[in-house]
Amino acid sequence: MNGIEKITARIAEDGRAENDALLAQARAQAAEIAAKYQAQAKAEADEVLSQGRAAAEDRARHLDSMAQMECRKAALAAKQDVIEEAFQAAHKKLLELPTEQYVALLADLAAKASTTGKEKLIFSPSHRAQVGKAVVTAANKKLAESVSPKLPEEVTDSKAGAILDKVVTGASAILNGTGMLTLAEETRPMDGGFILSDGAVEVNCTFDTLIRLQRGALAGEVAKVLFD
Questions:
Q1: How far apart are CA 192 and CA 21, in angstroms?
Q2: CA 48 – CA 46 distance, rounded (Å)
Q3: What is the rounded distance in angstroms from the CA atom of residue 150 to the CA atom of residue 223?
């Protein structure tokens, strides 16, 4: 091999060595860049997954909270329905009382609601015919007895004493201006009870109104009885 060939071969060999070195360096840089981006991609993927899991967990908690709230609302509505049915049952029970008990109940209500002892009692058409007079009579008796002096039992035990007691009771009622309730000719549509009328002033003693007025005070006690 002459000198030129040696030089050419040396240059070629040096070129290959340099090329190999550059290729090795390029590969190393490429591997480093690839590793860097793979790590970055993994980190970003992990972050996205973490955010996704957090969002999914938040969504699950939100849906669970909403489900619990809806369950509570449904349970409350169901309880309110049952309480309403209980009040309706009480109303029905009042209407189904035996006549004697029904008259006594309305007479007691009228006596307690009366302020002058001279009001008129307005009933529904059917109840006016069935119990109107009996209620007025019993209520007047209660009002009269509330202002009448009590005679000794040894006086009232006899027939004459019983008559005397009625005379004293009636006289006391007249003197005190009470016990003079009357049955109104007017009737109105109502489902139990009556309206106590004194001219422009009326006291609503219908069962609907009495139950509605007592509902707020009694609903808690009714709920305890039903759901305790």
A1: 110
A2: 5
A3: 43
Q: What is the pLDDT of residues 171-192, one digit of tens each?
A: 444 434 467 899 999 999 999 9
Q: How far is CA 73 from CA 66, 67, 77, in A?
A: 10, 10, 6
- Going by DSSP bridges, is the β-strand pair 201-206/182-187 parallel, antiparallel, or unpaired? unpaired
Residue 151 DSSP class = P
Cβ(83)–Cβ(226) below 8 Å: yes
User: From CA 180, how far away is CA 215, in angstroms rounded?
Assistant: 32
pTM: 0.57
| Longest pairwise C-alpha distance within the chain | 171
Give the strand pairing for 120-123 and 182-187: parallel
Q: What is the pLDDT of residues 28-37, one digit of tens each?
A: 877 777 777 7
